[in-house]
Design a protein that fits this description.
alpha/beta, Purple Acid Phosphatase, chain A, domain 2, 29% helix, five-stranded mixed sheet, 21% strand, single chain, Ap4A_hydrolase
């Protein structure tokens, strides 16, 4: 059987990303997909982009990736600081990322995106109204209409930094959590899909969520050494897995 590692929300946290990539390698998984937010929040956006480009077969756009390509204004010091660490080629790379990716696996039509089927900025929590969660399976202007007007059987996303798996009468919605800024427990998280890649006939299929410890204090020291804005808030999030505010991630 084939296995795909699905990672998301790196947020410039290199110790966390390296720990996850090492875990993926130890499992001999060769195919890695990334669901966006390579940059933002953490101290090393440039290095995160480089590692993702070299490691991942497929990468989709995240809200931070989109926001930074539009050059944040000077009133948003932390975002401007991130932007200034990137060169033109990296900005263009982020701009080039697609909204979503789709494929078959063991008879399931699978769609992956960052936040929702409508926008990289629309947030859908595991406790959202049922109609909002079911809307994640819709074909939209952003996702496009696939051949034969197929609707996904399985949808995976990132954005909320809160991993889960839910079933809706044969359809599966899952969140891969966050590599670089987990907000449940203080360990990086990613998902593994197992089945037969590209196969349209129904066969065995599974989704696994994986938690990976990493050196949190090293990640915090790196932010301090870079004199990153909002380092104190960032450090508190990494140490406690408690989000610093109530609006957006």
């Amino acid at each position: 059987m084939d296995r795909i590692a699905i990672i998301s929300d790196i947020h410039g946290n290199i110790p966390a990303l390296e720990a996850v990539l090492s875990d993926i390698s130890e499992r001999s998984i060769k195919r890695i997909f990334c669901l966006g937010d390579l940059v933002g929040k953490g101290p090393h956006p440039k290095q995160a982009i480089d590692k993702i480009k070299n490691s991942c077969e497929s990468v989709v756009l995240g809200n931070w990736d989109d926001w930074l390509t539009n050059r944040p204004d000077v009133e948003q010091e932390h975002a401007l600081w991130q932007y200034q660490k990137l060169d033109k080629s990296e900005i263009n790379y982020l701009k080039s990322l697609p909204f979503s990716t789709e494929f078959f696996m063991s008879g399931r039509y699978i769609r992956l995106f960052h936040a929702s089927a409508e926008s990289v900025y629309k947030r859908v929590q595991p406790h959202a109204p049922i109609e909002d969660r079911l809307a994640m399976f819709n074909n939209t202007e952003k996702t496009g209409i696939p051949p034969e007007e197929l609707m996904p059987d399985v949808v995976g996303y990132g954005d909320i930094h809160n991993a889960y798996i839910q079933n809706f009468k044969g359809k599966v919605l899952f969140n891969v959590g966050s590599v670089g800024n987990p907000l449940e427990i203080t360990q990086a998280c990613y998902a593994i899909l197992e089945g037969w890649y590209s196969r349209r006939s129904m066969s065995a299929f599974s989704i696994q969520l994986v938690r990976v410890p990493y050196d949190i204090e090293l990640a915090i020291r790196q932010a301090q050494e870079e004199n990153m804005p909002l380092t104190e808030q960032y450090a508190n999030e990494l140490r406690t897995a408690v989000y610093r505010g109530s609006k957006g991630i």
